[in-house]
Design a protein that fits this description.
By secondary structure, the chain is mostly helical. The protein has one domain. The longest helix is centred in the last third of the chain and has 24 residues. The relative contact order is 0.17.
């Protein structure tokens, strides 16, 4: 049985990425504006949203089978590192990059907690 901390942090990560993936996949106007600012193609933006959604499913499944949760959390961390790099390339400030940095930290914590 997973500890309450593992469950709570996993759920927070899942909610964060469920929101992020849904606005990409649904084409929410603010998400499209960010995509265009970052110079990302619509196809890649949708693919990132799909990968984020797969990561959500994976980290939640990790509460039952930890190896898949660890892999999914690492994948979400890597997606977030890519987001940070993309924001830096666009010369965005800390405020625009902070959510991706928080996502990296949360994903790493989830990977460690689900691995133990």
């Amino acid at each position: 049985m997973d500890s309450p901390v593992t469950v709570a942090v996993t759920v927070v990560l899942a909610v964060l990425f469920a929101f992020s993936s849904s606005i990409k996949l649904l084409g929410v106007a603010r998400s499209v504006a960010i995509r265009d600012h970052l110079g990302i193609s619509p196809q890649l933006w949708k693919a990132i949203g799909g990968l984020e959604l797969a990561g959500v499913v994976g980290v939640l499944a990790g509460l039952v089978w930890p190896p898949i949760g660890v892999a999914a959390a690492i994948g979400l961390a890597l997606l977030s590192v890519g987001a940070i790099a993309t924001h830096l390339r666009a010369r965005d400030g800390v405020a625009d990059t902070a959510s991706a940095a928080v996502a990296v930290a949360l994903a790493v914590v989830v990977a460690v907690l689900q691995a133990s």
